[in-house]
Fold this protein.
Amino acid sequence: MRGIYLVLTSLSFGLAAHPALATDWTQFRGPNHDGVSLEKIRTDWNANAPRPIWKAPMRNGFSAVTVGDGEAFTLVMAEIDGADQEACIALDAAKGKVLWTTPVGVAKYDGGGEHGAPGNDGGDGPRSTPSYDSGKVYVYSAHMVLKCLDAKTGKELWTCDVTKEHSGRNIHWQSAASPLIDDGLVYIAGGGPGEALLAFDKDSGRLAWESQDDAMTQSTPVAATILGQRQIIFFTQKGLVSVEPKTGAALWRYPFPYRVSTAISPIVSGDIVYCSAAYNVGSSACKITKTGGQFSAQKLWMVTGNKEANHWSTPVCKDGCIFGIFDQAKFGTAPLECVDLATGAVRWSHPGFGPGGCTLVDGCVLALTDAGDLVLVKATPDAYTEVGRTHALGGKCWNAAGVSNGRIYARSTTEGVSLDVAPQ
């Protein structure tokens, strides 16, 4: 293989002490699929800035970073055998050294991230994020090929081409959804009628079930327990559809408009589920009820238009409020907002973030701006209160940071970084 060109810049600051609640960040938006870290971190950034552990060049991609058993995983664009390909890479999470590189498919896109409005330049590349579970890495490529790799070697263990094997039809800007792993199964969308939603045994790759007729979006499904029922919630072109995890049978539906692209993951808080899409669609929340064993979803509120919509940045939720980056294609300027989940009322709004991403940690929203700043903001509805800020990355950042074992892991279209934020 040639052309991965990840020349490591090691900053050799030693290892951070692990906090008491240290955890791996194993999937897109974390191990619980909700963008929430349970770790305690150092928040006095103005006096004690996060300390870089390592920084490594990375060629193109909007993939976030996941962490499992001492390794960090992401997707990049790489020249392999004379052609640009998507590649999954594993790095030593402590040192940033590339351990292996495995091609997962052709790197050919519709150009959604390469050129356009001011602030939109800066590279294109893989859109999804690898998932880690029990020594294996799972990747769903932009061209809808699901692969399971050995985490220590990068060797392919099993694969499924959804286009060829399940009548899959890709969408504009290609698939951006990440594989969801829950209770032994891997969940993805993208198949044809009757097999639109798919579940596979995570170890063997055997098809567990195929279900529904929903056309796919760029949204990653989530797993959640609502009213005592574990369920997998997909955000499709028909809206929200919740299915029983072991069979794929529909539990409830919530219709929601589709126009051009839907990208965020659903947000679940108790019995309320939130969804949003740009392109003048808007945002909405529904309440899930259960009567005589039957689930249903009732609309709580909906607002239309872009100003109160999430483009591709999935918000986080705390104490009945969602915190996220709103508006469409406002590169460098899109605001971070706090919205009441039950009513849709905007509690506060602060500009200057751009379409980056949000993570919830230690009572704060950790926002990654599209220009590479990491910003800590108190996760309260009273007012925008900035706790600290540091410039972490060059390039364009269209994803959210992860928090694992006292460190922040983040990346852009040009580089990745690990920062020490363990309590001292």
The helical segments are 162-165.
